[in-house]
Write a structure and sequence with these properties.
Layout (H helix, E strand, L loop, with lengths): L2 H24 L2 H6 L11 E5 L3 H13 L3 E6 L2 H11 L3 E5 L7 H11 L4 E6 L4 H9 L4 E4 L6 H10 L7 H17 L27 H11 L4 H8 L3 H15 L4 H10 L5
Helix pairs in contact: 4-5, 6-8, 9-11, 9-12, 10-11
């Protein structure tokens, strides 16, 4: 028997095994449903919510759970939000700005100070430029109005969890401009001027370790609003390589997320 005949018999045996496997799988639908497959499940994105309005809180929880996200807890004021973040360590936290006892900005500062890895999205009806500037400087990854299309909220959570920014370049510029006048106008703010826990804001000095040319290019693309996939396509590299470069950028700049990195870049003229 020649080699071609042996190869034919070998392939035939494989086909027969595949046919048996196919018949077995078709006869065991429950087995298929319960067999784990290697797909990233949205249930792994753990979300917590803080809002002082019970109806709003319940509505957002329902919206997120209906979209397949895992809501692990909720809070009705800033103090509860800080404690919730400390105990549950969610991946993403939705935080209202105007809450009793401790407002959302102070809760944001405390949360990022204790657990900078938690991604915080500000959710509010107050599109105030000073609020935006302070939220960005305190480490917020995004800023969503309650007037937004509700379906955008789950998308925003997923975007933030993937490490992408929810702030475009114009919004960052507005935050920087507002931040320059925030000190002189703070006494007129709707938020009382009381001490705020010190978070890890974006540094104002140049990094001790210089960014490489590739890292500088990626930082500029972050400021331009590109997500990881778009950056990877632009530079013809993999998304995992982009994430590795971003970790190096964050470490060198002393920041915890891409929003703070973008603010740093614009403040220092790296991206104009």
């Amino acid at each position: 028997m020649n080699n071609c005949s042996l190869l034919f018999l070998y392939l035939l045996s494989i086909l027969r095994r595949l046919d048996k496997l196919g018949k077995f799988v078709k006869s065991c639908p429950r087995f298929i449903e319960k067999t784990p497959i290697f797909i990233m499940d949205d249930k792994k994105i753990r979300v917590a919510i803080a809002d002082d309005h019970g109806v709003v809180r319940a509505g957002i929880i329902s919206l997120l759970e209906d979209s397949g996200l895992n809501v692990v807890g909720s809070a009705s004021d800033g103090f509860e939000a800080v404690e919730l973040a400390r105990e549950l360590l969610p991946d993403v936290m939705l935080l209202d700005i105007r809450m009793p006892n401790m407002d959302g900005l102070r809760a944001l500062a405390a949360i990022k100070s204790e657990n900078p890895q938690i991604i915080v999205l500000m959710l509010t009806t107050y599109a105030n430029p000073e609020y935006l500037a302070r939220a960005v400087s305190l480490g917020a990854a995004g800023y969503l109005s309650k007037e937004v299309d509700p379906q955008r909220i789950p998308r925003a959570v997923r975007t933030a969890a993937a490490g992408d920014s929810l702030l475009d370049r114009d919004l960052l510029l507005a935050a920087l401009e507002s931040g320059r006048t925030a000190v002189s106008t703070r006494t007129n703010s709707a938020i009382p001027s009381i001490p705020i826990p010190t978070p890890t804001p974006e540094p104002t000095e140049l990094p001790a370790e210089t960014l490489t040319d590739k890292e500088t290019t990626i930082l500029k693309l972050i400021v331009s609003g590109l997500n990881n996939g778009a950056i990877a396509d632009t530079l013809s590299i993999s998304i995992s390589t982009v994430k590795t470069h971003m970790r190096h950028i964050f470490r060198k700049l002393g920041v915890s997320d891409r929003t703070q990195a973008a603010v740093w870049a614009m403040r220092h003229g790296v991206a104009k």
